[in-house]
Protein 1
Amino acid sequence: IFGFCKQRPDVVGAGRTDTGVHARKMVAHFDQTQKIENEENLVFRLNSLLPKDIAVEKVELVSSDKHARFSARSRTYEYHVMQEKNPFGIELATRIIGDLDFDLMNEAASHLLQYTDFTSFSKLHTDTKTNNCKITEAYWKKREGIWVFTITADRFLRNMVRSIVGTLLDVGQKKITVEQFADIVESKNRQNAGQSISACGLSLCDIEYPANCFEK
């Protein structure tokens, strides 16, 4: 960006993801004092320099009070689980061998909407001031042979989705009951939850902003 904008701006992302987690959508902002004459050309030039696993979709001008992270209203993650061997899904899904009861897993996932404190699923010793989050959807659905867990919240804690999925898999494998899953949430104790599942199956899929956020 420095070469295109004649200055070295600080680029601020909408959030951070663990190593190995994918982002199908990510938003970032930077403050710019000089006008960008051709936004489409900037997209093209950025993509010509970025590595092959990163692509810029568009660049938009927003008002100075908008922030990529703090203006976001919600984020949506997906976790992909495959039960059959699929060489094309190795880097985007986690294979789980054995039976899984997805009806029970959905019943357990629905309990997440009833809570706000998710200390049980947070990485220990983080610098967050609160472990409260508002989850608005959490469910499993089969899509083209892959089971997809979709979860949306106003914010997420470090390792939160991966530890939730790991604990839901315990429910699906009938290692714990739905009632025990709820007890784990209420315990606010990370040691009671399941293991944090592999990062490769997790993707940040959407970030929602207020309708007027991108008005110039």
Protein 2
Amino acid sequence: MYLGIEIGGTKLQLGLGDGDGALHALWRGAVVPTEGADGIRRQIEAAIPELLAGAKRKREDLRGVGIGFGGPVDDATRAVIKSHQIQGWDAFPLADWITDITGLPAVLGNDADVAGLAEALFGAGKGFSPIFYITIGSGIGGGLIINGEIYRGCGRGAAEIGHLRVSIPDLNQPCDTSILAPLETISSGWGIEKLFREHASRNPESFYALMQPVGGDTNKLTMRTIAEAVSQGDRHSRELLNVSLDCFAEAVCHIIALLSPRRIVIGGGVSLMGEALLFQPLRRMVAERVFKPFADCYDIVPAALGEEVVVHGALALARKRLA
């Protein structure tokens, strides 16, 4: 049995399992950003015995630990390179620290990479290769899985679709202008919310259906309220959401042209908008501009493993590397 750990910007999860797609037990907690990396490490140290006790297991039952970290990691040093969300992680030797506190061998991976591994082995990508996994949440991450193995480039990561620079329409200008910026600034959860807050505050009359449920307070706009407005047929909200989806579709077309994955699996909180709001318009936009010789080589599907996908992937990584 292995211990799997997910360390994100808002969520911390620990799970027990054999790395075969099934969990024996799960512990979930919320990250407190103001407490930084030290706070998360304290949570992990307290959660491990709590998880084992709840599952009626002993530390001696564990063979190793797999970690999925929300940021780039270095395979050679087994350390975090940087966190874009939580202070205190830069250059931290995370795998060695886990070994120190548990006495167990540990393996470290990027969270999107290990999530992609889980979906390829046990989820929506099972039986397909290559798989390109995309998570759309507070940021946008990617993972390329080839024949059941994570592609890591030269050892510091790969498939970072959220950091692709795309042409973003500058809606603040009266003429047709655009700027180049990383994809996650316009298509991640926080990027979409920021886009809607800016435009709703400037044009409250156009976004009346969106603003009414939050009492006109743009600070209360969330992906949930945005999705509700779009699903209820609010034209202005649909058009603005399409700006984000159009940029996302452009990035997906770049991935298809460069890598020609057999299946693209999309997960994360934003993907929960579902078929009508996200997947159907995204497939249409991609089909309109995809590199035509590859037009029948790919499909785009929702992820299957839910909120535990990174834990599943961390466990699978541990089994692959430590068995």
